Amino acid sequence: MASSPVPTLGKDLVGLESLSQEQILMILDTAEPFKEISERRIKKVPVLRGKTIVNLFFEASTRTRVSFEFAEKRLSADTVNISVAGSSVIKGETLVDTARNLEAMRIDMVVMRHGSSGAAKFLADRIPSNVINAGDGRHEHPTQGLLDLLTIRDHCDRVQGLKVCLVGDILHSRVARSNIYGLLKLGAEVAVCAPKTLLPSAIGDLGVKVFKRIEEAIEWADVLNVLRLQLERMEEGYVPSLREYNRIWGVTARKLELSPQDLLILHPGPMNRGVEIDSDVADGPHSVILNQVTNGVAVRMAVLYLLAGGQPGSAEAAKKEAGT
Amino acid sequence: MSAKALLKSGRVVDPSQGLDEILDLLLVDGIVASIGKDISGPEDADVIDCSGLIVSPGLIDVHVHLREPGEEHKETIATGAQAAVAGGFTAICAMPNTDPPIDDPAAVGFVVAEGRKVQAARVYPVGCISVQRAGESLAPIGEMVDAGAVAITDDGNPVMNSGLMRLALEYAQAFEIPVVDHPEDLGLSAGRHMNESVISTRLGLAGKPNAAEEVHIIRDLLLAELTGGQIHLQHVSTQFGVELIRQAKARGVRVTAEASPHHLVLTEAAVEGYCTDAKMNPPLRTADDMAAVRAGLADGSLDVIATDHAPHHYDEKEAAFEDAPNGLVGLETAVGIIMTNIVGEGVIDVVTMIDRMSCGPARAFGLSGGTLSEGAVADVTVIDPRLRWTVDPSAFQSRSQNTPFAGWELTGAPHRTIVGGRTVWAR
């Protein structure tokens, strides 16, 4: 047995800000062997057999919840989905009471999405189960950040030294924060581009460049990660109109011609076609938007495996302990 | 206890008379009968040895939320008045943002009556500026003053309508009461939860810029200057806000202003980890802002230390940061915090501390007290400047324990609180 200390993730995955480069790479490397499971005819390994996982979603989500559920089921965990509609939360139960009740049913892990920043840490501090943040307010969405990193690494063979620009609503985006922390820790250069109304005033202090106009960003970047513009941002006055947003900040094939190279295009979904991204870009040859979705399952399997105590180097072996 | 008390050999600190020396103080029938060296009081006077202790005019907190009526699970007038005397305060001003709000004379009378039931701090009601604190039309200010209100405010809310604020500043002049404002431009702050900075960016919390407070301070100062009215600005937390008040005072604007203990000793760093006990409004700000508030307190730009005592039930603070209410309890920690972290660090001396916690509040709100001159009301606070203690919220008289100061080790504490010549609390 190797005696060098193996990094661990600790009890929870609340965000990427608190992780080291080694921990992030460990998750990405662990995701690699798990990718293959989803390509099998029988997509199931017994890694988490007997584990009980609750997917606790206080905000609507299709993609992230389904991705976690596939990851859990492909690892043979028992899962329960709780979404806010129809749960006792509507009846006024507090977050801490909901958590304690679940805990009393002897669960092992909670995957939570919540509208309040810090909700994942709040829960993690109060229950002994593993907590995985599936998005807390505008704070972090670490598994999205990880799957974006994995997708970039897949297509560029590295993250170190790449120029990655996040485009769009940075202010309200948990995806943006997790991307910024993850990319910087892996040595990428990071920029953001948005109307100033959609940028936190101190965003530059996080160590990112700021572009006022998308044309400048396109000329600079190797990778664009295009964020969703929530339609209510227009009603709230952050942007005057969706048409204007598309004209000035939307990623279009015509604007991409400004780049001397082919840019890799990511989008965490769901897309507003014709707003932040045009269809010819989203469906174009350099879009890896669906690869992100595929990688999402593998990354979440890796996180579940590691938090459950799995050894990073043993994922391949664990996978092969067939449930025969 | 008899109606006569002789406080012997204390260090009497009374800025209203320029006193800071070892003196005796005789209280008879609720008033200060005499003050001087080696007073031999009447034989039936209770003699209280105050050697080694500070004897000051009773401390006054002009900014306290007592939650009654409507939120008695957080605090009541009785528990708040008890917490006040345990913190060395002989009088407190109760904010009107209750449910229902204190916006008519009957409601003011209720606060007066409940306050009189407890043998604790004097409870002075502050009435609303506007009906239902809705910011639309003036509440019956004159009738409320007749019923006992000492000031008006929509605290909790700012008065957003500048026209209404002008009317309040004009109308209140007939009654010689201050118009008290919580300076905050809601257009810049609504739905936001902490100071706007790199910390708020990292934590994913929407931030309130300093400008949200400063825009409103400028507005209020201009209207006070326009009307000749008396404005009292609550819990000033920003560097430029302090400077604006300093400049306005130099121009002769009738303005008084508060510093809160938490803005004097904490910065936004206390929010890290989503600490809901450090969530307050205005928010904790930067070290530069804290230094400016300290400087404003020292040079008199800020006249008053007021706690903004804001009790909340632990269930309400046991929530995600954005879902938790603003505020902290302050009555029972103020003296220790100011003695330890403000006087102890040389920001102000004890004389200035007593001015900002007793004389300044009495002047700003036109209250009796704030002096130990002969014939004055016998409200006295005795402070032990050397007592070392640790903040233990479970020992609070307040019904709530929400404080970011739990576990702080402090030096200096209230020793005895005397209201109207009677000891209502002693350690």
Q: What is the percent of helical residues of chain B?
A: 25-40%
Decide which structural class fits the backbone of chain B.
Answer: alpha/beta
Indicate the percent of residues in helices of chain A: 25-40%
The largest sheet of chain B is: 8 strands, mixed
Spell out the CATH superfamily of the largest domain in chain A.
Aspartate/ornithine carbamoyltransferase
Look at the structure and name the CATH superfamily of the largest domain in chain B. Metal-dependent hydrolases
As a percent range, the share of strand residues of chain A is 5-15%
Largest interface: A-B, 24 and 21 residues
Strand content of chain B: 15-25%
Key words describing this protein structure:
heterodimer; A: 324 residues; alpha/beta; Rossmann fold; 13 helices; globular; B: 427 residues; Urease, subunit C, domain 1; TIM Barrel; eight-stranded mixed β-sheet; five-stranded parallel β-sheet
Describe this structure in words.
The complex is a heterodimer of chains A (324) and B (427). Chain A has helices at 21-35, 63-74, 95-104, 119-124, 142-156, 174-185, 214-220, 232-235, 242-249, 253-256, 279-282, 289-307, 315-320, and strands spanning 52-57, 78-83, 109-114, 130-136, 163-167, 189-193, 209-211, 223-226, 264-266. Chain A is of the alpha/beta class and 324 residues long. In chain A, the strands form two sheets. A five-stranded parallel beta sheet of chain A has the order 7-6-5-8-9. In chain A, strands 2-1-3-4 form a four-stranded parallel beta sheet. In chain A, α4 links the parallel β3 and β4 (130-136). In chain A, α1 packs across α12, α2 (63-74) packs across α12 and α5 (142-156) packs across α6 (174-185). The longest helix of chain A is centred in the last third of the chain and has 19 residues, at 289-307. The model of chain A has no long low-confidence stretch (mean pLDDT 92). Chain B is an alpha/beta fold and 427 residues long. In chain B, 30% of the residues lie in helices and 23% in strands. Chain B contains 13 helices and 18 strands. Chain B has helices at residues 77-86, 105-117, 141-147, 162-171, 186-189, 198-203, 210-227, 239-251, 261-265, 287-299, 314-317, 334-343, 350-365; strands spanning 4-14, 19-28, 31-36, 46-49, 54-57, 59-64, 89-94, 122-125, 152-153, 179-181, 194-195, 207-208, 231-233, 255-259, 304-305, 380-390, 409-419, 422-426. In chain B, β6, α1 (77-86) and β7 form a beta-alpha-beta unit. In chain B, α2 (105-117) runs parallel beside α3 (141-147) and α7 (210-227) packs parallel to α8 (239-251). The longest helix of chain B has 18 residues, at 210-227.
